[in-house]
Structure formats: structure tokens, C-alpha cells
Write a structure and sequence with these properties.
homodimer; 459 residues; alpha/beta; Rossmann fold; seven-stranded mixed sheet; four-stranded parallel sheet
Chain lengths: 459, 459
């Protein structure tokens, strides 16, 4: 292995170097993300309107567009030590395999039982729920990473945990359920007959494989109907991006130690939790004019909210019980084709990232899943880690950028987010190995149809 | 979390601090482990007799009882960086949950896609096979960790890899196969009809769920019948314990940094690879009279080679094609009851560990699997990591020792090996959650019957 002087394969921060505050990128945005609207009145939601759904402290964080640094409570910093710091890895073996002059780094968030970065926000949200004296929380999960993360966090803080899991994932990932049960959670495939909205969706679309938007509706209904319960969400929301800023803060601290500055930062984008967290401090520098970075969001061609969606107010859920958010959306009724593997299946995108994209601070690209799995296998064989399909979207884009450098001879420094591992995604890998994996790109007509249902909002 | 001053939750060595040589505990043993015997002649095997089966450099390591430190080639040290150093973790949360004054540490080897410590030896063995110019290697795998590790190593070094997987594990862990395929390996459930010995065993025991001993026979046959192939083994052998000494060396280096000395060292024991590796440098000090440690091997009550086996020469495999090793054995025909979950199902035990145990340098205990899974779940809920059933044997014993400290008030320092994660063991966890897991302890008569077949060897 040809190793750069002074650049180890992996950098771990020490316990003392771990961030003590999250970074709130909204504080540095000139154009703030648009506020959540009450779907009934069309007016910006106030804290008191959100309090039947969310924990009080999390509402505060959700609505705070001004405080740049928010202290991480000691209890959360303590449990972060269970799985943080995560390593910043120099992909020497991948560089060698590609024959590229580019220097590739990845921030690996998969070294924990949830298998992803989701635990960063789960621990925070469970802590605040417990601190408020709640009995439990409800949530939805797509690929299962968020549900697992929340189960772990609830077990750690002693909260009841009820998870609605998108049916196609529930069926493709039977062992995810057992992991969640190990941590004491209950798991229901969505849509279910446990909720009114689930029954309604099942009646309207019999045989549906489910969607995140639909599972959200069920989880919200379940939370608001039970005393002492609140709903928590693993992506999209401002609070989640705040918690996930720990990824970028650690990455930046590690880069600073090495005296390295990335040129390109790449993350996969579903609801935006990983990408938003990874880029936060770098984006902050860019917004303040202190540095420039190329920032690239990578989404599945089968669920292309940034690249083919509309920047508009939309419901956050299929059942239309949640607030309206201004975001790049494919329409709240959009459900990715059943051949779509893994996560990144949300119809919308974080309002923060949507605004930043709209304002030209980042790029977006979409990739087909067979190409994604090719990149995943190539990566696994040289770097050892078997990546999650979600993360592999970022791998694919990073490889493409590194190959461009090979053509031009440029020695660019690329950072990508390796959000997690694919150990519970082996059904999808099996399809890929057997040549049974297909791609699906929605037609313009399909997207137009699903966008036709956008709510009318006077802005 | 109550944290000791100067003792972080996790210690990672830096790249410069990583061991540059393996430690060969045999060099410090007064009574060397007995040599492997040729099953035909009953005489100690010479290097040339082993060379149709094993790689040349590995034979050298296998037979070397004298060299205390053997340099780790740079290429292996490079690929170790992919998944090493592994963290030494202070189990603060477990201590708190138990209310024990004991200080519990674990060395966690599961942060890699093979999910265990097995990759330490796989990388070494694949490297030496490649260096010898071989085309490929064959092996057996029980729980699947070794097979996965070897697949990863072979993919890394560009070798063909053929894995015979104990049938019960093959069926309980379908996704393991896909992981191995991701790395380009082929996987066959054992016993199979691909080999003569497999056919023979199937004829004799139709419907058998397989055993490690039987899969070894098949893998050896497959290697010796193909030009350019050799057989590699993930446990039991001296060379494997040598490679695994990296675990103990890193643990000891981390302890030295902290200024801490463990009182009790605990490891699970199947063939002995993890236990032997973990304890090596500590055992060295003990053998040289420089320090004293209580060292405890923990084995399943359903496969109790140390606690209920006989110290004698026996075949290493069910098919009786392999050399004879002197070890604690249950008889090469012993197959654990089908309700036995996970690995630790080998009928024998590393000759090194057998000799050390025989000479009184370590203790052994056995535990029932329902208790093991209880300990696993307890551990997962407070420390976050969902452990492998194998590793959970050590967790169970560590918890028991910590609870003894609670009774006596002693502040003992306990180190245990957390060899891996249980992400591919969810069928077993599901049984446990559903209350369907049972225990099985072989009767004295059963063990006597299986020991009756020991080969007659004039020592």
C-alpha cells in the first residue's frame, strides 16, 4: 500500500476531541428554510401546535433558526461514546484499484448495531423524550436502520418503542425485526390494520408494498392516540440534521488534524439526515464565505426528489396528517417501484437541504441501483466493508469523480459519507448476484401525476 | 455515566502503536504442545508431509516452537489497518447495570464485515498462499465467520476461495452465503456429495446437520485433489493462535497506556483461536513468572471439550483424513446436539491451550446457551453491541465474575474477549425471544461412546 506521509489509513478522534455542541447550519443561512405549515390553516406552526406530536425540547430545536451551536447534553455525549468517534478513513486501497490520483476519504458511520448514522439522532431524541417523562415513542422505518437505532436508544434510556416498518423492507429484512426485539421494541409492517390511516391506505391500494410516507402517518396516529407517547422521526426534520451534524463536525476535526481540506463532499440523500449532517460544518464555511467546497447529493434514479421533484409545500406523509413542509418533493403519494432496494425511498427532502440546493449551494445527481450495487461490490472487495445500498449511492458518485480525476490528472480530495453496512440487505445483494436486479426510472408522466396532488398553499 | 479519571470509554491504539510482530506463546512454554502425528505411521509430521495440505510458510509457523516474535509482513500490517486497531472498551454501562465494583473491559473484534476476530488469521493465511503462487484455498466454516473472513481475505489478495459450511449453519444463516459471494467465494453445505468423504458420511448418517470435523475432511480432500490449492483452517492450529496474538498484543498495549493490569482474563473457547490470541502475551508473562492472571476458558455445555473431554491424541476431523493432534477432545465423531446455536462446535481444542490447561495455567468452565443468550441480551441493551452467541459465552462468565465481586466487594479488573457480532445469528435470537431455545448437556454415556473411538497412539 502506498501511503501518504502523515496520513494514516484511519483517524479516530480522542474522547477529549469529540464535539461538545451540535452545529445548526440554519444559523448561517441567509434564506432560512421555510417554516412548517399547519395543514388546516396554512399558517406557520407554533410550538404548542407541535407539542402533541413531538417532544418539547425537540420542537425548540426544530424551530430554532438562529443558534449556531447547541450544547450536547452530557448524557448524550456519554452514550455517543458507545459508538463514536467514527473513523475518517483514507481509501488507499480503492484509490489503488481505480488508479486515480484523487485522494478519497470516507467517514464511516456503520460501526454500531443499528448499522448506520441513525443512532446519532435516535440517542438524542430518546434522551429528550425520557427527560420529558414520556412513556414511549412511535416511529416509522424504511430500510430498518432508523427503527433499529431507535430501539437501541429506547432500550438504553428505558422507553417503550413502537416501530412501523415499510412492508417491503419488513419482508426483505426479517432479521431486522429480531434485532429490534432484542432491544425490546415492537415492530409492525406498514400499512397495517392497527391504525385508521393504515386501514384507509390498504383499502385504497390493496397489496401496496408501503412507503415511508405511509408509515409516518401510522406512527403519528399511534403516538397522538396514546397518553405519554410522542412521535419521533429519523430524517427530514431540522432537529435530525442538527443531531447528525456530529458526523461533519468529527470529519472536519479529523481533517483539521491532518491539515487536509476536501474539494468535493458527497453524500447519499433520501430524507437528508446523513447528507445534511456530513456537510453541515463545511456548508457553514461556504455560507460564511470562508471556504468553498463542491457538495453533491446522490439520490436513487427511482426516487429522484432533488433532481426531478418540485420545490413546493407538500405533506410530509402519505396520509396527509402531518404538517406541510417546503421541500423538493415528488408528491406525498409517490411510492418507489417495488424493485427499489433499501432506503432512500422518501418522496421529499429536508427543507434545509432543499433550500440550500435551491440557492445553488450544492449539486444533485441520481444513479441507477444496478450501478450502485456494482460500486458496492467493488468497494467491498478492496476496502473490506460491505456497504449499505444507501451508502453505495455515495460510493458510486465518489468513484465517478475519482475516475474523472484519472482522466484529467487532478489530485482532488474527495470525502464521502459511508453511512452504514449492508449486513441486513443480503436479499438485495442476492438479487444482484443472481442478475435479477433491475432498474426503474419513473416516467415524466408518472411524476406529473404524483405531483398533481400537491396542496395549494399561498406563500 | 460515572467514569474513572483517565480511563476513557474506548482506547484505540494509533497506527504507529500497532504491533509489528506476532507473539508465539510456545516459545515460553516449558512443556511444548505435543507435535502433530501422521495418522498412518504415528510419527511426528515433518514439513514435507504437511506441504500437500498447507502453505509452506504456514507450516514453518506451525512447527516453530521456539521463536518468540515473528515479524508481521508489511503487506499484512497494511491490510490489518482496514479493521485494526480494534478498541479496548471499558464497559461502564454494564458495570453500572450490574452494580458491581469490578472494572470490566472488553476487546471488541467485531467491527469488520466478517463480524469477528477471524479476519486476523484469514488475511495472514491468504497472504502467504498468494506469496507461494497458489491459485486458491479451501476451508470449512461453522458459524460462518471464518468463511466470511477468508472470502474477504481471498478477494483482497486475488485468490479463489471454496468454503464448506456446516449444514446447520448454512441453513440457519442464509445471508452469510451472500456475503461470501459478494467477495467472490463459492459456498457448499457440508456434508456434501462433492467429496468422497462427504458421500461416505451422508451414507453413514443420513440427515446429519454436519459438524466442523466433517467439513474439515471435505475441505482437505478438495484442496489436495486440485492443483495449486491448499487447505486453510481458522482455528485450533498453532499458526492461527500465532496470528490471533494480535488481539492480546493490542489489548496489552492499550492496558499499558492506561497503566492498568487485568486480574481475570476470559475468553470463549471453541477451537481456541480467540482465547489463545487474547491471552497470549498475558500467558507469556505468567509462564515467565513476571505476572499472574486468572485465565478462564468458557465453552458451551453442549460441546465441553476442556471440561469433560480427554487429553489425548485424536483426529482433527470426522473423516479421519487429517493429522492427529494431542488435545482435549470429545472424540472426532462428536457432533453437538442440533439445538446448539452458533459456533464453538468443534470436538477438540488447540494443542497449545490444551497443554496450558493440562499444566494448570488456566481454568475452564461451561455454560448453557439459554443463559448465554440472556447475558447477550442484557449486554446488548446496555452496551449497544448485539454480540455473537460465541462471544456471549465470555460475556456470561464475565458477568458472573463481576457479580461475585459485588458480593465480596472486590474491585477486580476483568478483561473479556468480545469476539464478534451476532448480526447473522438472528434465527437463534428469534428462538430465544420466542422461548423456543433449549439446552442440551450430553450425558456421560454419550461422551464415553464418542471417546471410545480415540485412535491408539503410543506416546
Amino acid at each position: 500500500m502506498k501511503q501518504d506521509k502523515n496520513i494514516p489509513y484511519k483517524v479516530y478522534l480522542t474522547e477529549e476531541e469529540l464535539p461538545k455542541a451540535w452545529y445548526n447550519v440554519r444559523a448561517d443561512m441567509k434564506n432560512k428554510p421555510a417554516p412548517l405549515l399547519n395543514p388546516g390553516t396554512g399558517k406557520p406552526l407554533k410550538a404548542e401546535e407541535l407539542s402533541p406530536i413531538f417532544c418539547d425540547e425537540l420542537i425548540k430545536q426544530e424551530l430554532d433558526d438562529d443558534t449556531a451551536y447547541i450544547e450536547i447534553p452530557q448524557e448524550i455525549r456519554d452514550c455517543y461514546k458507545m459508538f463514536r468517534p467514527s473513523p475518517l478513513v483514507r481509501a488507499y486501497f480503492l484509490e489503488e484499484a481505480l488508479g486515480t490520483p484523487a485522494k478519497i476519504y470516507y467517514k464511516f458511520e456503520g460501526n454500531n448495531t443499528s448499522g448506520s448514522h441513525k443512532l446519532n439522532s435516535a440517542m438524542a431524541q430518546a434522551y429528550y423524550a425520557k427527560k420529558q417523562g414520556l412513556k414511549g415513542v412511535t416511529t416509522e422505518t424504511g430500510a430498518g436502520q432508523w427503527g433499529t437505532a431507535l430501539s437501541m436508544a429506547c432500550s438504553f434510556f428505558g422507553l417503550d418503542c413502537k416501530v412501523y416498518m415499510v412492508k417491503v423492507s419488513y419482508e426483505q429484512k426479517p432479521f431486522r425485526r429480531e434485532v429490534m426485539r432484542t432491544y425490546g421494541a415492537s415492530v409492525t409492517p406498514s400499512p397495517s390494520t392497527e391504525t385508521e390511516i393504515g386501514k384507509k391506505i390498504l383499502a385504497e391500494f390493496p397489496g401496496t408494498t408501503g412507503s415511508l410516507g405511509c408509515a409516518i402517518s401510522e406512527a403519528v396516529e399511534a403516538a397522538t392516540k396514546q397518553e405519554g407517547y410522542r412521535y419521533v422521526l429519523g430524517s427530514v426534520l431540522n432537529q435530525v440534521l442538527l443531531h447528525q451534524s456530529i458526523i461533519g463536525l468529527e470529519a472536519k476535526a479529523a481533517f483539521d488534524k491532518l491539515g487536509v481540506k476536501p474539494d468535493i463532499i458527497i453524500g447519499c440523500a433520501g430524507g437528508g439526515s446523513n447528507l445534511g449532517g456530513l456537510i453541515s460544518p463545511f456548508m457553514g464555511e461556504k455560507l460564511r464565505g470562508e471556504a468553498d467546497y463542491r457538495i453533491i447529493a446522490v439520490e436513487p434514479a427511482s426516487c429522484p426528489s432533488l433532481t426531478r421533484g418540485k420545490f413546493a409545500y407538500d405533506f410530509c406523509d402519505t396520509g396527509k396528517v402531518c404538517p406541510l413542509a417546503k421541500m423538493y418533493t415528488l408528491g406525498s403519494g409517490f411510492i418507489p417501484a417495488p424493485n427499489h432496494a433499501g432506503g432512500l425511498r422518501y418522496h421529499g427532502m429536508s427543507s434545509i437541504l432543499s433550500q440550500l440546493y435551491h440557492d445553488g449551494y450544492m449539486e444533485a445527481t441520481s444513479v441507477c441501483q444496478t450501478d450502485v450495487f456494482k460500486a458496492a461490490e467493488q468497494f467491498a472487495r478492496v476496502e473490506g466493508i460491505l456497504p449499505a445500498p444507501e451508502s453505495s449511492h455515495a460510493i458510486k458518485a465518489a468513484i465517478d469523480e475519482a475516475l474523472k480525476c484519472k482522466e484529467t490528472g487532478e489530485e482532488k480530495t474527495i470525502l464521502f459519507g459511508l453511512t452504514g453496512t449492508g449486513y441486513f440487505d443480503m436479499v438485495a445483494y442476492e438479487k444482484f448476484h443472481n442478475g435479477e436486479m433491475t432498474d426503474y426510472i419513473p416516467t415524466d408522466e408518472e411524476l406529473a401525476a404524483s405531483l398533481a396532488g400537491l396542496p395549494a398553499v399561498a406563500e
